[in-house]
Write a structure and sequence with these properties.
mainly beta, Immunoglobulin-like, 2 helices, about 30% strand
């Protein structure tokens, strides 16, 4: 009986031991930490840094381990109620691409994240990039880089093109139409970007050019509809025609002092552009350069500018302030046409010609002074600028005046149909602007061509 009892106790003890072991294993196996679907565990971030958010579900406590000064995690630990943590990455000013391991520990287990941050610029013989598909880019041209491409790979979240020697140029159309290109890091010694080099790269979000880049070709970044920011560097001297044409997400641009002219259509229809900085040194602003930049609210044109081209700022409907430098000699046809928010504007004493329709449909200009330097005012120059109450003409020598310069639309109801608004009944009449002129020039103004249309409104102060 005693032997049977001892045997039963032994069996019970073994059973209890197995039960305890199974219980421990069960607890360990049930601890879980699962990132949300689609989370990338080898993320990359550009040189400016930023915040990466990692969402997850967990049934246990956890903590994040990282040992780099340029990374901060918030929160760095938590329990099962937490649903996310953020990785805050500082700007990379080291000049080199850098990586860092980040470990998420929970229970006796862990998950590793490998973070890569791009440098502002690559090594002299490399181009780094990222695509939305995670695949290598097929170039449109292999000639013109200044060196031979020997390797094009894509791994760990980014692609890399490696050349035998220094990359000096991005040739014409090299990346044109590559709509999967979302990020590119260019080499330090790059000198030029060819015509249409990145035209139609619709996923490209930002780009930084080194200070040795001197030339940006025609249509170089045209139709890059996701491009929000670009750092031109300090070495740029030439920006080609339509260089940033239809970059609808571009928010700001700073033109360095080496640039002498802004060519035609350079920033045409950049509808998100709110800030433009023009350095002293720019001498001319081309035709349609900033046309349809409907978010632009203010522009300061430096004294070095002598010419504002035709349609340069036309339809910039939010442009409320335009400060014109003291070197401007001509304002082109339709230059500020339909800038409906543009308030009173000071015309510089250097100004000689005001083009046709230059300030037409500018319905917020209330008063204006035309300096003695002005020699001609074009046809329809202030047409339909219906708020224009007074103009102070300082010149004793009457400047040439085009037709309907201070007229507006009105509808003539005397037609046979008797219905106002028919296009055939559309007519012009003076706005009613009071035109102040020097006392000894009143008669000269009243008798001059086209000024005579405003005889009733010409007065002296």
């Amino acid at each position: 009986m005693r032997k049977i009892f001892s045997f039963l106790m032994l069996v019970l003890t073994l059973a209890m031991g197995c039960s305890e072991d199974n219980s421990t294993t069960s607890v360990n196996d049930s601890e879980s930490f699962i990132f949300n679907e689609g989370t990338y565990l080898t993320p990359t971030i550009d040189s400016e840094g930023g915040v990466l958010t990692f969402g997850f579900k967990s049934n246990t406590s956890w903590n994040v381990i990282e040992n780099e000064e340029w990374i901060e995690v918030e929160p760095a630990s938590g329990d099962a109620t937490a649903t996310k943590f953020e990785v805050i990455v500082l700007k990379n000013e080291s000049g080199d691409m850098r990586t860092a391991p980040i470990t998420v520990a929970y229970g006796k287990k862990s998950i590793d994240i490998i973070l890569t941050q791009y440098a502002e610029l690559c090594a002299v013989n490399e181009i780094a990039y990222r695509t939305t598909t995670g695949e290598v880019i097929t170039l449109n041209s292999f000639e013109g880089f200044g060196s031979t491409l020997i390797e094009n790979t894509y791994a760990d979240g980014y692609g890399k093109m490696r050349f035998e020697g220094n990359v000096k140029s991005i040739p014409a159309e090299a990346f044109s139409g590559c709509n999967t290109l979302s990020l590119i890091i260019l080499p330090k010694n790059l000198e030029s970007i060819g015509n249409s080099a990145f035209e139609g790269c619709t996923s490209l979000g930002s780009i930084t050019l080194g200070d040795k880049v001197a030339e940006i070709g025609n249509s170089a970044f045209s139709k890059c509809r996701s491009l929000k920011s670009i750092d031109l560097g300090e070495g740029v001297t030439t920006i080609g025609t339509e260089a940033f044409y239809l970059c609808s997400q571009l928010e700001s641009i700073a033109i360095p002092e080496g640039v002498k002219s802004l060519n035609d259509n350079t920033f045409y229809n950049c509808i998100s552009l709110t800030s433009v900085s023009l350095a002293e040194g720019v001498e001319s602003i081309g035709s349609h350069c900033f046309a349809l930049c409907s978010a632009l609210t203010a522009v300061e044109i430096p004294n070095s500018v002598t010419t504002i081209g035709n349609y340069a700022f036309t339809d910039c409907t939010e442009l409320a302030t335009a400060t014109l430098g003291n070197g401007i000699e001509s304002i082109g046809n339709n230059a500020f046409a339909s800038c409906t928010a543009l308030g009173n504007i000071a015309l510089p004493e250097s100004l000689k010609t005001i083009g046709n329709y230059a300030f037409s449909n500018c319905n917020s200009i209330y008063s204006l002074t035309i300096p003695t330097s002005v020699e001609s005012i074009g046809n329809y120059a202030f047409f339909n600028s219906t708020a224009l109450y007074s103009v102070d003409c300082l010149a004793t020598t009457v400047p040439a005046l085009g037709t309907y310069a201070f007229h507006k639309y009105h509808y003539d109801n005397s037609g046979e149909s008797g219905e106002a608004g028919n296009i055939e009944e559309l007519a012009y009449s003076p706005i009613g602007t009071i035109i102040y002129v020097p006392t000894d020039a009143v008669e000269a103004y009243k008798s001059a061509d086209n000024w005579s249309d405003y005889t009733t409104y010409i007065k002296t102060k």
